[in-house]
Please model this.
Amino acid sequence: MSFKGSVIWITGASSGIGAALARALAADGPKLVLSGRQVDALRRVAQQTGLPGEDVMILPFDITDADARAATVDQMQTRFGRIDLLVNNAGISQRARVLDTEMDTLRTLMEVDFFAQVALTRAVLPLMLAQGGGHVAVTASVSGKLGSQGRAGYCAAKHALMGWFDALRAEHARDRIRVTTIVPGYIDTPIAYAALTGDGSAHAKPSKGNARGMDVDACAQRIAQGLRRRRREIAVGKGLEMHALWLKRWFPGLLFRLVERLPG
Model:
């Protein structure tokens, strides 16, 4: 399936997977809505897509701001009249152990990585139902399938995403609402720099895991292909962490022991 002429809204589109996915899906000739908080970065991504200006809408907003979410949904609908694919890609990571992580930091992680994604999806869902169908995707993580040291809050939020969107898929399967959960491993993006430390400040350091991860454009091409094929789940990555997905299913005890030995 091609997304030619479809209206695609990507959040977290100013960098990383979101920006790369905008470039990858632009090859189909869709109408793109690009959201994030960095306007200049969104403009650069819009130019990189190669799409004509009338087919790209830059819609900056803070995804945790309820009023801004409602306003952006209205603006998107006014501009294009429909929404065929929503890619919930905004999010933030974490680098802090359990006892070093303040409760306010945990609440921030849940607000950004879970509640904001759910709220935007709920705001868009009535539009999709009214138009007779649509497709919702969310960027979860391998951390949404297993727990790892130094990322307890992030893992909790991503586990919650997996459960909520799986339930959404089941509830609206007969309404022609397709739901895709994207499960990346380590991808070479700057996500670690903005990751939260225990007190909520930015980690501001590179990640060895991400640096050795899959090239972000190769990752986006895999995701784009999975979305075109309407896959329910897209696991993407190249590192040893990808083996954890089947180890968790078939040999959970072995996986738990391996994770316990990894550095935090």
User: Anything to note?
Assistant: The beta strands are 7-10, 31-34, 56-58, 85-88, 134-139, 177-184, 233-236. The longest helix spans residues 103-131. The chain has a mean pLDDT of 94. The longest strand covers residues 177-184.
